Amino acid sequence: ASGSEEGHARGSEGMAGLYCGHMEEVPSETARNEAHRGSDGLACLLIVAFFLAWHAAGVFAGQVYVAEDTAAYFFSNRAVHYALAQAGEFGFWDPLPGLGQPRLANIQNGSFAPLSLLFYALPTTTVFRFYPALVLSLLSLSTFAFFRLRGGGTWPALFGALSWSTTGALLTHVQHLAVIETLLFLPVTLLFWQLALRRGQGRWAILAGLGLAAQCFGASAQYLVYNGLLMALFMGSDLFAARQDRSVLGQRAAFAVGVG
Fold first, then answer.
1. How many helices (H) and strands (E) in the chain?
2. 58-to-39, 65, 135, 150 alpha-carbon distances in Å
3. Under 8 Å CB-to-CB from 138, ≥6 apart: which residues?
4. How far apart, in Å, are the Cα atoms of 206 and each of 54, 257, 260?
């Protein structure tokens, strides 16, 4: 009986040790998660500060950054749209070119791209002053979030996001509204696609589809082709990875159809 009691006592002590050990692991895991959130938040603040500093002349000094055909086309285009909107005369028919045309017929106009809606509410010069900092910050933040969701660490994801959003093609097109707004929603679409796969919820695939629609409203046909090829690469690789699990493959295929 004594041996049985001693064995029971040792067993109880062992269970208590395991329990205490488990309880000690929980705070450390929580601390790690909080540390990741803290570092991610810091990275996001660094992204915004970086582009505010880069385009401080526009944001804080009232200058307008001009690259490529910004002044020749988009500035005058948006100024006319602002005047029409303020006069209550803006519509889906554009009477200015030739005999007139539907506004959506101009493939590289991007009149209804999400960020371009700012041009109907604020003076054109005002928007162009802060537009580069705004669009590049949003592009970098969404790219950073996508890289993190794909498994990248905080600082590699930050480096990748800034490397992508400071390439020459982007910097020279930052006021080319059709190009930059088509590119802006590429990482947003891929981010929602990854969330759909990770959480197994169709609503994220629907949001990815809305991101694709926003790319289309950006209205750069050339960059839509580039975006489509990149999305096909990522989404195709995710489908291929699930080829041996029919249930997962079927779900991912359904999500892909939902995005389209």
1. 11, 2
2. 29, 7, 13, 34
3. 184
4. 35, 10, 9
Q: Three-class SS of residue 187?
A: helix
Contacts of 40 (CB under 8 A, 6+ apart): 148, 154
Residue 233 has pLDDT above 80, yes or no: yes
Q: How confident is the model at residue 171 (pLDDT cuts 50, 70, 90)?
A: confident
Amino acid at 45: L
Question: What would the mean pLDDT of 61-76 be, rounded to a whole number?
Answer: 78
Mean pLDDT score, 22-47: 73
Measured CA to CA, the distance from residue 133 to residue 136 in angstroms comes to 5
| DSSP state for residue 72 in the 8-state scheme | I
Q: How far is Cα 52 from Cα 28, in angstroms, rounded to an integer?
A: 36
pLDDT at 27: 54
